[in-house]
Amino acid sequence: MTKTKPLLEARQVFKGFFGNPVLKGVDIALEPGRVHALLGENGAGKSTLINLLSGALQPDKGDIVVDGKPVSRFSPAAAREAGIAVVQQELSLAAELSIAENIGLGALPRRFGLIDYKALSASVAEVCERVGLTEPLDMPVGDLSLGRRQMVEIAKALFRKPRVLILDEPTSSLSAHEAGILAGLIRKLRDEGIALLYISHRLNEVQALCSHVTVLKDGVVTADQPLAGVDDEGLVRLMVGRDAGDLFPAWQDHPAGAELIHLKKFSAGTALDVDFQASAGEIIGIGGLVGQGQEDFLLGLYGAIPASAEKAEISGSHRPLKRVEAANQAGLAYVPADRKHEGLVLPHSIASNLLLPSLGNLVKHGLRDRAAERNLVADLAKRLTIKGDVTRPVQALSGGNQQKVALAKWLPLDPSVLLLNDPTRGVDIETKREIYLMLQSFAREGKLVILLSSDTPELVHLCDRVAVFREGRVVATLPRADISEEAIVGAAMGVSAKGAAA
Amino acid sequence: MSATTVPANLYAAVQKRRNRGLTGLYLVVAAFLVVYAILFPGLLSVGGFSKFTQNWFPLALVTMAQALMMLNGGISLAIGPMVSLGAVIAAVTMGGPLGVLGGLIAVSVAGLFIGAVTGGIVAYLRLPAIIVTLAGSFIITGIALILLPRPGGYIPDWFSDLLAGHTPVAFGLLVLLLIGWKLYLATPLGLGIYAAGNNPVGAFRSGVPVERVKVFAFALSGLLAALAGLFVAAQTGSGDPVIGTPFTLNSIAGAVLGGVAFLGGKGTMRGVICGSLLLSVMINVMFFLGFPPVAQYVAQGLIIVGAVAIPQLTSQWRAKP
């Protein structure tokens, strides 16, 4: 094997926050012309390592090494100068500024001290072409969908002509089509000799794109090896440090009960003329590309946005629900995708987040019943395996555990219909598995679970039926026997399964 | 796949987009101006126009000063005291050995310096602007009262006549300031205000010097407020250590009318100019219609709430299927 000189390295780096060690002597070396995968569960230290490699944080001990030379004070400016660009998970865009201004931000071409809009326009157009951004360059970024903003973010990184490109979960909000463009782009950049670091929870992407993998677990490197010959189970084993078995729990047949939802020509927001039926004890998948009306469908069912229908039976109501309170009373619960803003009150404690939907039921003499509250919290924490102090703010938890809290707070109300909007996005593998088991047990208890997911394998392994959305309409309802990744993606893209594979 | 859409002139296209949502404001301002011109036809003469713009000028400046702070994601409670201090420094120094030029320099330096120090405290110590400027407002008022405990001082008559006489000099200065503002916004540091106000963490990661952007914006804000004070001193022919007080809230009102958002990064200078103009015309029209002063305040408040609520209501109404 030829040894190429790494462009960017971390050597034995340590980093802690408030006395909590996060990285404990980590090595990583990014070589030109290689796509390097960085894997690890949430909380393993991936984000901290990325922040060290991009100069956003300084290591407590150890060195960041550029071109073989240790850099003493590695700042974001020094990182940029060294040709290191990062596509962060949280977007760095300013909504009010145009696509072009956002892409150029921090590296704007100037003439006589003023921004040279002509030069900017030409060079931005070039990177937009590469990533397939066809929107007008003067369009404010705030007008774009989340997926398109992510593409702007990628264009912004490329604009700096990086030698090292770090991609942190770049596909989590992309449609399959956009993810495909990105994959092609990554291969091209690799062939041009750029060193790439790719962080993703989607193992199939890692397998398809990367040739080398570093696995972090609890702040130490548990593997640093070529990816060839390691299968998904092998990767999961490396991450959790033990045999995790299959990611997805085994399929269990569960009988469907009484019909809970029956819709005919149901429309809400961007969801149009949806025919839909679902019964107690079923897990129904909602699939398709990002932003095809799936979310509005769930919100319309939940009474959060206005809906209309030719016929609607929703958990005992004979018309679309008008208010969220009415939906809760009818036994519906909704877990939003954006848990940080919609699902949780981040600075509040785990306990008060868990209590929020049940506060009205835990009342004695018109006052809050503290004893009943304590019992409920203790019970929920046990059922969810949330360890430690429940008075900690929920923002101190990892993404996966936050999601568990967002889900669990509904359990005391014993909802009969659970509407879940991408519950495993950005969640580590072990928690994913816990969530899958929860969904199965809900179904066994006779609840109806409606699972909107951007992760197609999830739909394949968990659902009794999958409704695939395209441009607001259900283009296919696949029964259990016909569910496959090819069938879902094919329907979502409006082509036959064969065409989609190309 | 279709190609990327590249506008022929990116700068012009970006500027055009910024008019979005301001059409209503333009129409309201135009309507008020027409009403005012009908009530007071003198507006259309050189003298009348000059007087009108002189009344508007300090309000336009402080509204710009406030908008700079709000775009940064903060709000300033020290605008009024800065106006007073500017007026006091002008009245105290212009009679001295350095004359008018010296006074001009002293006012500008004081505005820039106090603004930059405030900005430095907010940016580097990461304190909320509203608290720092609240503290600043006490300190600045104190300094103004020490310099000039009672209204007085000296402003040369020729200087008062130049700025606040029968010629539209003030309007010319406003045009110059606007050109300067446009140029500033076309620099990376000026554009950085929007990025830093909108998404500070993202701007920092993109290589925008967020702290420097803030310090510059605060310094310019201080300068604008101090210059407004200088103008007020020229108008009244003397300095007054509390003359600026109403400007703090009026600057916020003007910026809000002009569509500047409280959360930062959203708002345009053309909106701000229209907002301050609207406020100024509104006050004048109500005066001419014979509203008692108390009713003027109430009407002003209602109009401001309406200006914020109406776009919100129309967008909700449009969103309904």
The beta-strand count of chain B equals 0
- Estimate nothing, just give the exact number of structural domains of chain B: 1
Sheet with the most strands, sense and barrel status of chain A:
6 strands, mixed
Please give the CATH architecture of chain B: Orthogonal Bundle
Assembly status: heterodimer
Shape designation of chain A: globular
Rg of chain B, Å, rounded: 20 Å
Mean pLDDT reading of chain B: 90
Tell me roughly what share of residues is in helical segments of chain B: over 70%
Q: Give the terminus-to-terminus CA distance of chain A.
A: 32 Å
Percentage of β-strand residues of chain B: under 5%
The CATH topology assignment of chain B is ABC transporter involved in vitamin B12 uptake, BtuC
How many β strands of chain A by DSSP? 24
Structure overview:
Chain B: InterPro entries: ABC_transp_permease (IPR001851). Chain B: It is found in: Cell membrane. Chain B: Pfam families: BPD_transp_2. Chain B: Part of the ABC transporter complex LsrABCD involved in autoinducer 2 (AI-2) import. Probably responsible for the translocation of the substrate across the membrane. The complex is a heterodimer of chains A (502) and B (321). Chain A contains 18 helices and 24 strands. Chain A has a 6-stranded mixed sheet, with helices on both faces. Chain A has a 6-stranded mixed sheet with strand order 18-21-22-15-23-24, sandwiched between helices. Chain A has a 4-stranded antiparallel sheet with strand order 2-1-4-5, covered by helices on one side. In chain A, helix 4 packs across helix 5. Chain A is globular. In chain A, 50% of the residues are buried. The C terminus of chain A is likely disordered. Chain B is mainly α and 321 residues long. Chain B has one domain: ABC transporter involved in vitamin B12 uptake, BtuC, CATH 1.10.3470. The longest helix of chain B has 27 residues. Chain B contains 14 helices and no strands.
